[in-house]
Amino acid sequence: MAASPLLEGVAGHYFNDCNEARPVDRRPSEIAKLIKGDIVARYALDPGNSERLWKRSLELLGIS
Question: Can you give the pTM of this predicted structure?
Answer without folding.
Answer: 0.58
